[in-house]
Amino acid sequence: MQIAQIPVWQWLSEPLALEFMRNALIAGGLAGIICPAIGCFLIVQRMALLGDVMTHTVMPGMAIAFFWRIDVAIGAFMSGISSAFLIAWLRSQTRVKVDAAMALTSSSFFAIGILLISLLKIKIDLHGFLFGDILSVSQTDTIRAGVIAAIVLTAIAMFYKQLLFYTFDRTGAQALGLPVNLIYLGLMAGVTLTIIASMQTMGVVLVVSLLVGPAITAYLLVKELHQMIFVGASLGVIASAIGLYASYYLNLPSGPAIVLAVLMLFLLALVFSPTQGLLTGSK
Q: Which pLDDT tens digit goes with each residue over 208-221?
């Protein structure tokens, strides 16, 4: 197919005639909004690694959920929250540094998940779990993702001031009597729900790209946290759309195509950001 000879409106509308592409664009758009929205808080706190950790720690819960034949989202959420408790405990009660606690928790939970799959003889598509298959997303999956996105975004809007204070000055927030441990667990719950909402779209490995990429791109473009959230979410939606259209017309794997779109937008911001760009930023 010669794309250059197709009118723009037809080029944009042709994939929309297919139900699986419509579902994929909706799911990708939702993931593109919710992942950067929660990822911005991790970036500002210099906790980007936590997103990668949480994508691995949902594995045991998913394995148990598959075995008991319950909704995998329930198992994934319980496993993710358990890992957040463990990291918080190691951080506060021992001399172990937070990066070491996260690395140990991530590898341990992932290994436990693999062992459970083997011991319980669970038939699970590990490739799909790790890398996702956005083109197989059903209408039910998009509804679930939409509900989770609404919950997370509503919570961010309701508790934005507390999250803002906690993000920039945890010690000060604690001194003023804010429940910093509860805020931390709420943030981890948001990260876990975000991963659950995006698993079918990107897989637990590639979802880290949407959690981190649009957020750090927005970090190069704007200064305020609320601006980061809006710009990051917009970039996430754009990257998802670019990746899916590239997948459709160039016959590329959808998940990696979205990740490359995220990288492309980051590199453009890195070079041309008005304030921090390598070529255009002030010295």
A: 899 999 999 999 99
